[in-house]
Amino acid sequence: MKDMNEGYLTADGRQIGGVVMELKDITLRFGGLTAIEKISFDIRDGEIRAIIGPNGAGKSSMLNVISGFYVPSDGEVWFKGVRRGPMKPYEIARLGIARTFQNIALFDGMSVLDNIMTGRLTHMKKGLIAQAGWWFTGAAREEYENREKVERIIDFLEIQNIRKTPVGRLPYGLKKRVELARALAAEPKILLLDEPMAGMNVEEKEDMCRFVLDLNDEFGTTIVLIEHDMGVVMDLSDRVVVMDYGKKIGDGAPDEVRNNQAVVDAYLGVAHD
Ligand SMILES: Nc1ncnc2c1ncn2[C@@H]1O[C@H](COP(=O)(O)OP(=O)(O)OP(=O)(O)O)[C@@H](O)[C@H]1O
């Protein structure tokens, strides 16, 4: 299926590119607890990469390492060929990494549009002084451009009819969609989705799957997602990393992983040595 140096062609004919991020021997400890132990894998341009594993396997911790929120205790993170050190949140966003959270993190009292606009903050170059001299400084043009980008995302995610609605009034599935819109507003190179389908009904899941596939296709966004619904993982992802007790026990195409005995055992709860 693949020549890993040159990228690879997926089963559905999409061309996946070279390595965007490489995680080398990542270990993450919280005091005496080792949440991640010597895990290595890469993320390739344009692919949909899933991280799966039983509860407490270390998936969210790994997503936090990828996002730069956690600095690993050991190991190296390479992003676009450069070794990454500790970073501030705004530096992470500027690198082109955005995420959604397991528990929705939106401003309930603000409209859908305003929530999505917050996703553009890292792209707003003009500061307060520029805002004061709005017309003279180019801030007006910048705001116009930001609005245009946000409108495109609103159209793409089919949420035009709720643009002015306060987020707090929306049903769960739509809130998740607004969170996705906000992450997309940052125009990320890598989009991290922490259980994007959790708590959704079947119809909402189908919608979310379609949006994830479409945004990968239309914007070329590389996606890393944690998901418990195996049907969703197998349908969506190009490659899957499987974690159990902080270790990597599988890595490959969905079919390879499904037939991996260690993975089957982990999900069936077979005892470890
Ligand atoms: N900030 C933290 N401080 C201390 N321990 C933590 C912290 N975050 C996670 N852990 C521990 O690290 C281990 C891995 O947790 P993590 O949340 O990464 O797993 P997970 O696979 O995402 O689980 P789930 O599917 O339940 O969300 C767990 O034992 C957890 O209790």
UniProtKB/TrEMBL annotation:
One of its GO terms (cellular component) is plasma membrane. InterPro entries: AAA+_ATPase, ABC_AA/LPS_Transport, ABC_transporter-like_ATP-bd, BCA_ABC_TP_C, P-loop_NTPase. Keywords: ATP-binding, Nucleotide-binding, Transport. Residues 21-270 form the ABC transporter domain. One of its GO terms (molecular function) is ATP hydrolysis activity. Coiled coil: none annotated. It holds the Pfam family ABC_tran. PANTHER family: ABC TRANSPORTER ATP-BINDING PROTEIN, CONSERVED COMPONENT OF ABC TRANSPORTER FOR NATURAL AMINO ACIDS-RELATED. This is ABC transporter. It comes from Thioclava dalianensis.
